Every structure is written in C-alpha cells, then in structure tokens.
Amino acid sequence: FQAAADSDSSATSHDNTIIVTCLDHHLLEMYSNFVCGLTELNLTHRLVVYALDDIAYQSLHEMGAPVIRFRDEDNHREREKKSTNNDESIHGTTQFARLTYKKLHIVNQVLRAGYHVLYSDVDVSWLRNPFIHLSIPNHLIFLFANDWTMVHHQTSTNKDLQYICTGFFYARSHAMAVNVLETAIDYGTHGKKKKTFFLIIFSLLIL
Predict the structure, then answer these.
(1) Is the pTM value of this prediction over 0.85?
(2) pLDDT tens-digit series, residues 71-103
(3) In angstroms, rounded to a whole number, what is the distance separating the alpha carbons of residues 193 and 199?
(4) 3-class SS of residue 160
(5) Which DSSP symbol is given to 133?
(6) What is the arrangement of strands in the sheet containing 47-51, beginning at the earlier edge strand?
(7) Apex CA 104: angle with CA 169 and CA 48, to 5°?
C-alpha cells in the first residue's frame, strides 16, 4: 500500500490515496485492458490488485502485477476450487452479489490500514486522470455514482430511491467509512441477504 501511496510526487498527488481493484480469473482479459488505460495516464504505479482466486493470483503474479491474494473470514474456498468458466459474476446474480460483498471487504481492509481508496472495477475504462478531481471536503467520506437512473426514470414516486454503483467510487480512510462498510458486510453475512438487497442496504447506509 505504502509504495502505491508514495509513488506519485506530482502536483496532482493525494496523500495516501491508492487505486484498488479486484478480480477473479474470468476477468483477466479485462484486467489487461484496464491496465492499458492506466498506463496511458501514467497511473499504474498507484495500483493495488486483489486476486479473488488462485488462478487469478498466479496469472497476475506472473505478469508482475502488484497483486494480493484476498482471503476473508467467509472464504468460499471449496466453491472457488470448483469454479468453471460458467461461474462468471453476471450482474443481478448471486455470484455478482458475492463479488460485491468481497469488494467491500477489500476496501474496508485498505481503509483500516490508513489509506484512502479510489476503487475501480476492471471493466471501467479510464479516459482521464480522476485524481485531479479529488479535492474533496473533509466531511465527505464516500463519493459514488447513482445507478438508479440507468434502469428507471426518475419520477415523483421513485426519485428518493437510490441504487449506488460500486464499480467506481472513492472512500476516505475514516472511522465512519469503516463503520458503514462493516455494517453492510455484517448484513451480507446472513444467508439469503447476500443477494440484491445487500446493495440496497448499503445504499441506504450511506445516504
């Protein structure tokens, strides 16, 4: 973490902010494209990658990526060992919800270590350097995009409903941020709640 946080001495550097992503082996090709975008922006030195399975870890390690093998208390190791190409995390599936759950674990780990996080999924293309827009007031601990308008028109009956996008967001290393993430993670540990409702609960916690 420290190497990524210290590696940029430019005027757009932000203290203790690192780029974090995570992926399983199904997303390795997308990772290659993701890194190409960061390379164009001279940002690869700020990146930390979490591998969600052994295949991804081995491949990323061989690439020379700054990779960490993620393991959580609720690690589904047997399921991961049996993972096949048909187990890709498609949006709206339980597998996708599980991936989001792990993502929040990862961000929480980094925040607890004292680093701010600019999280990005590997299927996000970076066209410009987002760090120049991170002059964020201290009272803001999260910055998210809103996915609700992507699937529903805002009306008088649903305009207050929010569905945040966890594919690209900023989180400040702050006790309140850690508390929100840990509350959402705790909710996600209870059986059937590891589905779509998990994202809704997380959305409500930060609003």
Answers:
(1) no
(2) 865 555 444 445 444 565 666 566 666 777 888
(3) 10
(4) coil
(5) G
(6) 67-69, 47-51, 17-23, 116-120, 164-171, 142-146
(7) 70
Q: How many CA atoms lie within 13 A of 31 on its CB side?
A: 24
CB atoms within 10 A of CB 32: 11
Question: Which structure tokens are listed for 135?
Answer: 């002059």
pLDDT score of 51 more than 80: yes
For residues 137 and 146, give the distance between their C-alpha atoms in angstroms, rounded to a whole number.
20
Rounding to the nearest 10 degrees, give the CA dihedral for residues 170, 176, 178, 182: -120
- CA 21, 150, 117: angle at the middle one, nearest 5? 25
- The rounded distance, in Å, linking the Cα atoms of 114 and 6 is 13
Q: Report how far residue 68's alpha carbon sits from residue 51's, in angstroms, rounded to the nearest whole number.
A: 6
- Residue in the block written with tokens 């082996």: 25
Q: How many CA atoms lie within 13 A of 1 on its CB side?
A: 17
- The span from the CA of 72 to the CA of 179, in Å, is 17
Sign of the torsion angle spanned by Cα atoms 65, 87, 149, 166:
negative
